[in-house]
Amino acid sequence: MTRSVLFRVGLVVFALLFAACQQTTASPSAAPSGPTQSAATSPSADASPSEPASASAPATAAPAGAVLDAVKSRGRLICGINGSLTGFSVIEGTGATGFDADYCKAVAAAVFGDPDAVEFRAVNADQRGPALQTREVDVLIRNTTWTVTRDTTWGLFGPTTFYDGQGMMVRQSVGASTLEDLAGSTICVQSGTTTELNLTDRMRELGVTFTPQVFADIDPTYQAYDEGRCDAVTSDRSQLVSRRSGFANPSEHILLDEVMSKEPLGPVTPLGDDAWFNVVKWTVFATIEAEELGITQANVADQAGTSTNPVVLRLVGAEGELGAQLGLENDWIVDVITAVGNYGEIFERNVGPDTPLALERGQNNLWNADEPGLLYAPPYR
């Protein structure tokens, strides 16, 4: 038998053996009749972002668009807030007021055209990460500082809505004007916060010894301070000003000049769903861009018919189809600004100079204002 004939015979034998192997390893009886999903990605019929199977379940990435679809199907947004912080979020019945609460309403207006289609859930500092990881909330808008650890384990941080820094509040009677003057003092602080870590770092750096009084919730923290169980209390400066406004004699409490940290505060969405993250992100950007363009609650409805500025026309949905790219109506920004106003209106109404908090814009001003701040929105185009 020639060498070429042997070669052809060998090929035939190999083909027969290969076909036999395929039949034994891929039996038609074992194959599904339609598309399959792995256990890791197949959604449970009973699971939803607001009803986690277990509070201790590990965080998993949501399929793109899953949160937006769940929110629309449910008919309301579930927004995690502080709930006890004057000027930022205070729960009142089934609703809430304040700067952060307004951004919850803004997202609801973006999705539904209705700022009231939102359920507010108060979460304390320790509950914030788990609430996102287990999808108890669709978005967290609650004086939460953006850090690398939280960004990689909690969720996706949207644009900063409030630039803040950690401060220290003391009674005037204590006689302290610097952190060094608090040597040997007792300081109230909340657990599970960057505040707790920053306090330890800064006092260690200064060589100042102190005794921390740690609380899980905001109300007991300030109650202890108000009752004199600690000499000072530390948190974001905006929070200190907010809580001071509720004391019997606010003027008896002063904020030290030192700012101990950078505290960029903003909304957070669950990890893994970029489509939902984009909705929340661009809702914030829309309020900033609206202020820059002079679009307000009072005039936004007229802009589509009166403006000749193509940037304005795109923003209000009179030109282009940008809303569809986000899974929203084309004029969704009109609904947002109609509901809560632009960034400046939100700030002034809740925490500005004419409110009990009397906060100046400062870093929270527009980048191109007469006194420039840090607020800047990418182009909506």
Describe this structure in words.
This protein has 381 residues and is an alpha/beta fold. It has 2 domains: 66-163 and 265-364, Periplasmic binding protein-like II (D-Maltodextrin-Binding Protein, domain 2), CATH 3.40.190.10; 166-261, Periplasmic binding protein-like II (D-Maltodextrin-Binding Protein, domain 2, 3-Layer(aba) Sandwich), CATH 3.40.190. Helices cover 37% and strands 15% of the residues. It contains 14 helices and 15 strands. It has a 5-stranded mixed sheet with strand order 11-10-12-9-13, sandwiched between helices. It has a 3-stranded parallel sheet with strand order 5-1-6. A 3-stranded antiparallel sheet has the order 2-3-4. It is globular, with a radius of gyration of 27 Å. The N and C termini lie far apart (75 Å).
The run of helices and strands is HHEEEEHEHEHEEEEHEHEHEEEHHHHHH
Quaternary structure classification: single chain
In CATH, what is the class of the largest domain? Alpha Beta
Question: Which residues form runs of ≥5 with pLDDT under 50?
Answer: 1-58
**Share in helix:** 25-40%
CATH architecture of the largest domain: 3-Layer(aba) Sandwich
Distance between the termini: 75 Å
Shape: globular
CATH topology group of the largest domain? D-Maltodextrin-Binding Protein, domain 2
Strand order of the largest sheet: 11-10-12-9-13
